[in-house]
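Intended use. Records such as the Molybdate transport system ATP-binding protein entry shown here are meant for training and evaluating sequence-to-structure methods. They are not intended to support clinical decisions.
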Amino acid sequence: MTGLRAEFVLTQGDFRLQVDLRTGPGEVIAVLGPNGSGKSTLLDVLAGLRQPESGVVAVDDKTLTDTAAGVRVPPHRRGVGLLAQEALLFPHLTALANVEFGPRVQGKDHTAARRWLDDVGAADLADRRPRALSGGQAQRVALARALAADPVLLLLDEPFAALDVDAAPALRGVVRRVLRDRAAVLVTHDPLDALAIADRIVVLADGKVVEQGPTREVLSRPRTPFTARVAGLDLVAGTACPDGLRTADGALIAGSGGAAISGEPAVAVFRPADVAVYTERIHGSPRNVFEATVTAMEPHGDVVRIRVAGGPPWVSGLAADLTVGAVAELTIEPGSRVYLAVKATEVRVHPAVPDSAG
Ligand SMILES: Nc1ncnc2c1ncn2[C@@H]1O[C@H](COP(=O)(O)OP(=O)(O)OP(=O)(O)O)[C@@H](O)[C@H]1O
């Protein structure tokens, strides 16, 4: 057992997808990236729906694509399962018959279908037809159907995106449980999905892998603006210097730790919760202070997240989390002039991805 290996190049129009990813046996990998970065195209290649110009796709000891050796296993022979945004169940079959369908047509044992339904918490739905299922229930049945085919690799394409906020967490829990020790690739926009389910994260930008590593590590030390945004962190790009980071316009962001090398491209990363907000300039403080204008205020859990714009371009998009009480006391609203302050000890300076897309 070697896990998933996907190393290929595919060009469509003026878009070029270049991927090199490997996972350990039974690992779940989450793929994140901005719109148009190549996530769906990657799934299509893994599923065998598109053929790369060059490269290899293999799961464990099974080669699915090898352009040099002329190997292209067709989609229905790959043993690759798919759970899409919509459940896409056969409308005229019961939930149980939907789950039995795959093994039946393959001439395999279909008597385990009830157990799969039970595994995803849908045993009591066995006799229902899809139109009598909620979105979350239909996704459970679709998951049972995908698992019943015993795939070597399961692809999940935004499986929670079409569910309401109550159904998504329950299904997320089910997916985490059934994917234990099963190779899977999860495309998602939600870092919570990645944290809850994935062992590793790959971030695509413009057809290239810009970040890759263990989930918590990637999300806590983002190297690109996109990853920082999905991880809910503030990020300023520049060049590492002995005291922290120097922006392109010469501002110093004092920071500590984070292993960036002086003179190399770097990013300063901090948490919105560590940013204090003032309406008057503060003097004599050892903290980093950025002058900014409030552009948006939105509830974020039990705090209010404010977004700001600069001044300098690197200030734009920074966020600070305030309690409702603090917002009321400061009397700020969109358009207000504020000063953001963050202590150097709260700022980590990490090596950046050169030419990172955001
Ligand atoms: N059949 C096609 N022919 C030519 N270009 C295509 C084709 N399909 C997709 N593209 C282009 O390839 C790029 C990657 O598309 P892809 O759908 O893989 O991105 P994505 O990351 O899944 O985006 P989203 O998050 O919006 O779903 C885009 O620039 C898209 O316009």
